[in-house]
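[Automated response] Your request has been received and processed.

Submitted sequence:
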Amino acid sequence: MKAFSILFSCIIIALPMVSCRTASQKSDSVATANKINKEKAEQSQLDKDIAEFLVEIADGRMMDKREGEEALKKGTTKEIRQYGQLMVKDQTKLLKEVKKLAKSHQITLPASISSEKQEGLADLMKEQDKDFDRKFVKMIAIDHERDIKLFKKAGMYDDVSVRRFVVKYYPMLETHLGKVEAIKKNMQ
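Generated structure:
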């Protein structure tokens, strides 16, 4: 009976931990999309590298758009707010194109930003005034640097439609990075 009580207590304690982990995994739309795409790739229904690229780019576009929305609301300078507006406009346009490309390749995209990016966004949203501006500029610069690396790699893929997409939108990413670096320089 004592062994049963101990076992029952352990199950009661461990159950919430397991269900929290499962709920977190289920709520991460990026992880779900990657899992679906991995299964399709294993069945030779899609190119795994292209799927990973488009999922990551979609996640980034959704994040950059949300960061831009926050900059519009909380940016302390006209420059930050204008850059936020640019992010909302351009990231919305780019995400639309990512969705078209993914659909043509039968790739599943995330419905929302990843848990990791949600945490970063929550951290950004906590900031106020100049602290917000600094964190926004830092985060968006990191995002653009990462995106440029991803685009360079994807530009080497054999798929013509992916290469065309990269050629079309790579200059926009470079322009965004240049603008945010200028804002950062002006802040110092």
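Summary generated for your ticket: Residues 3-26 have pLDDT under 50 and may be disordered. Residues 160-187 form the longest helix (28 residues).
If you did not submit this request, please reply to this message.
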